Amino acid sequence: MTLARLLCTALLCLSTAVAQAAGFSFIEVPASADGPALRGAVWTPCASPAGQIALDPLVIAGTRDCPVAGNALPLVVISHGTGGSSLGHHDTAAALADAGFVVAAISHPGDNFQDLSRQGHLSAFATRPVDMKRLVDYMLGTWRAHAKLDAARVGLFGFSRGGYTGLVAVGAVPDFTLRKDLCLPASRIPLCGEMRRGELPAPPARDPRIKAAVIVDALSLFDASGLRQVTVPLQLWASELGGDGVTPGSVAALRRDLPVPPDWHEAAGAAHFAFLAPCPPAMASALPDICRDGPGFDRVAFHAGFNAEVVAFFQRQLSK
């Protein structure tokens, strides 16, 4: 996809979007027999002008605790990559909320930037899809404005290990033996030993409430057999350069093996972390590996088009 097309798509989306600003609030899904408390954030359509919300080291556009504008609103839930957070895709979430969606994201317990206790274990691959089911349960049944949601219009956005999470949530069955390149013989990563010993978790059941998904530079543990039950509409994104265990070839194989051809996009010149929201200067200085892109790649300009494509896809697939 060319930069010119991205910018044109962004302008088209902005010209047709609902004239709203993103409301913002924090949420906590209570602990249950299925797992610990889930902490995250919700972005909502809001009739008030957007301000600046300081969430050190981030500053995001939005209005704190704004009354939710609209009724029968579609819901999109977000699953972040390994070691990420509920705020990693805040600009995409705000763009969706500006267009009339409610967006909810959580930090996956044991696999987020503050708590990496499960990151190197296969248990994280089993609990992540359960986390998303619990988040949908909460938003549709307990969240303070749940009556304003349309339970028949639920989508999912997943990046990296969150892309794996999203695929499982819509019916994919992983095969943990496929990616031998992720576990070299001398590897001491716990999940590699678990795989060698055959200590493989049973995949959670598909969540039939999710009607469409945007899968972004996914960590793939799937072949055609494991993907055959994925029939919901997908928008599939790949970075040209890959990174963090995600290779261009593995994402291209997903495109090839899905039973229903996805809405396919390859981000030219992008490495894996280009799909994260643009970083403020202090964050870019502290975290150059995830914040700095290659020569000639403009993450801000790219996200204008990327967010517009995501919004347009969900508008098509979750329309009334």
Primary descriptors:
single chain; 320 residues; alpha/beta; Rossmann fold; ten-stranded mixed β-sheet; 10 helices; 32% helix
Question: What is the secondary structure topology, with strand pairs?
Answer:
Blueprint: H1 3-16, E1 21-29, E2 38-46, E3 51-55, E4 58-64, E5 73-79, H2 90-98, E6 102-106, H3 123-141, E7 149-159, H4 161-169, H5 190-196, E8 210-216, H6 224-227, E9 234-239, H7 248-257, E10 263-267, H8 281-286, H9 288-291, H10 299-317
Parallel strand pairs: 1-4, 5-6, 5-7, 7-8, 8-9, 9-10
Antiparallel strand pairs: 1-2, 2-6, 3-4
Shape: globular
Describe the largest sheet: 10 strands, mixed
What do we call the CATH homologous superfamily?
Alpha/Beta hydrolase fold, catalytic domain
Backbone structural class: alpha/beta
Helix content: 25-40%
Counting H and I runs of at least 4 residues, what is the number of helices? 10
Order of helical and strand elements: HEEEEEHEHEHHEHEHEHHH
Kindly provide the name of the CATH class: Alpha Beta
Instruction: Report strand %.
Output: 15-25%
Number of discrete domains: 1
Question: What is the fold-level CATH name, i.e. the topology?
Answer: Rossmann fold
Lateral strand order in the biggest sheet: 3-4-1-2-6-5-7-8-9-10
Integer-rounded radius of gyration: 18 Å
